[in-house]
Write a structure and sequence with these properties.
CATH superfamily: Flavodoxin domain
Shape: globular
Order of helices and strands: EHEHHEHEEEHEH
Number of strands: 7
Oligomer: single chain
C-alpha cells in the first residue's frame, strides 16, 4: 500500500475523558498500515461555529466566509484519504468541539438537492471524498448511547457518499490496542 494521508480530528474536551492514550495508539496503528498521519487537537484551534448563513453555497461557493482555521481544515479534509473522528460520546453524539468542525464542512457539498432512496440530500461537490472512521470513547456501559452514536454515523455517511464506519470504545472495559485494532480491521 502506498503512503496515504489520514487526518485525525481529535474532539477531546477540557472536561471529561482524556483521549491522549487512545490517540497515540491510533496514530501508531495507522502508521503501521503506511498512513501519513496528521492530528488536529480541535480544542486548541480557533474555529468559530457555523453561522448558518449559507454564503458558502450562494456567494462564495465552496468557501466559508468565516476567516479562521476552518477554511484550511475543509481543504485538509477533502485532500485526505481517511478522516478519523476521535470523540468522547456525548449523549450518543460527537463532542461539541468535533460537532462545530463538522458543521463547518458544509461547503464540501453543493447547495442543490437530489433524492436518494426516497430521502433528500445534497449532491457532491467533489468526485471523491475521504473514508471516515468514527471512534467514540466512553467510560459508561450505555447501550442506548452506543446505538445512537452508530445511527448518527450511518446518517452522516449518506451525506458523504462514501464509507463511514465506527466503533465505541469503553475505556473501562476494552484493551485500547485490541479495541483500536478491531475498529481498523477491514475498515481502512
Amino acid at each position: 500500500m502506498a503512503n496515504i494521508k489520514a487526518l485525525i480530528l481529535n474532539g477531546e474536551m477540557d472536561e471529561g475523558i482524556a483521549l491522549s492514550r487512545i490517540s497515540q495508539t491510533l496514530r501508531e496503528a495507522l502508521k503501521e498500515k503506511n498512513y501519513i498521519v496528521e492530528e488536529k487537537m480541535l480544542k486548541e484551534i480557533d474555529i468559530k461555529p457555523c453561522m448558518g448563513c449559507y454564503t458558502c453555497w450562494i456567494k462564495t461557493p465552496g468557501k466559508c466566509i468565516i476567516d479562521d482555521f476552518g477554511q484550511e481544515l475543509v481543504s485538509e479534509i477533502i485532500n485526505s484519504q481517511l478522516i478519523v473522528y476521535l470523540t468522547p460520546v456525548v449523549y450518543g453524539g460527537y463532542s461539541p468541539e468535533l460537532k462545530k468542525v463538522l458543521d463547518r464542512i458544509i461547503p464540501l457539498m453543493l447547495p442543490f438537492f437530489e433524492k436518494i432512496k426516497g430521502e433528500v440530500h445534497h449532491p457532491k461537490r467533489y468526485e471523491n471524498y475521504p473514508k471516515v472512521l468514527a471512534l467514540g470513547v466512553t467510560d459508561k456501559d450505555n447501550q442506548e448511547e452506543t446505538v445512537i452514536f452508530k445511527e448518527l454515523i450511518g446518517r452522516n455517511a449518506l451525506n458523504w457518499y462514501n464509507t463511514f464506519d465506527g466503533s465505541v470504545i469503553n475505556i473501562r472495559n476494552d484493551s485500547l490496542v485490541t479495541a483500536i485494532a478491531e475498529a481498523l480491521e477491514g475498515r481502512i
